[in-house]
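Field notebook, page 75. I keep forgetting to write these up properly, so this time I am using the form the group agreed on. The chain and the ligand, FE2/S2 (inorganic) cluster, are recorded exactly as supplied. Prediction of the bound pose follows.
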Amino acid sequence: MTIRVCMGSSCYLRGSYQLVEKLKELQKKYNFKLYGSLCFGRCSQGICVEIDGRLFTGVSPENVEELLKKVLRDA
Ligand code: FES
């Protein structure tokens, strides 16, 4: 699994840095590659995260583990 977190300014202001920190923790539990990305163009709906080519919006440190579990279930 590959995860790209938006590093654009709008997502940054919404806490993308904290989200990356949370994902680094979760990497010990789940197997995925983590990258930063340029703006996905959905700034008003951030934080935006792309998982295996699928874009998710409204991601936060609080809900990202639930999202990962859902994506893994659906895979
Ligand atoms: S800044 Fe994240 S989608 Fe534009």
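OBSERVATIONS:
- The first helix runs from residue 9 to 13.
- The radius of gyration is 11 Å.
FOLLOW-UP: compare against the apo run.
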